[in-house]
Amino acid sequence: MARYSRNAEFVDAAQWFNPGDHEAVVLRQPLGDLATHTVPVPWLAHPSGGGQVVYAGDWIVTDQFGHRYAISNPAFRALFHAVGEDVHPDDIAVDRFAKRRQGRGGWQDKESCSGPFLSSLLVEHVEKGDPIDVANFSMMIHQRGEQIAGERERYIDMKLRERRDREEAERQSGNGDSQASVAI
Question: For residue range 85-95, what is the model confidence (pLDDT) as tens digits?
Answer without folding.
Answer: 566 667 666 66
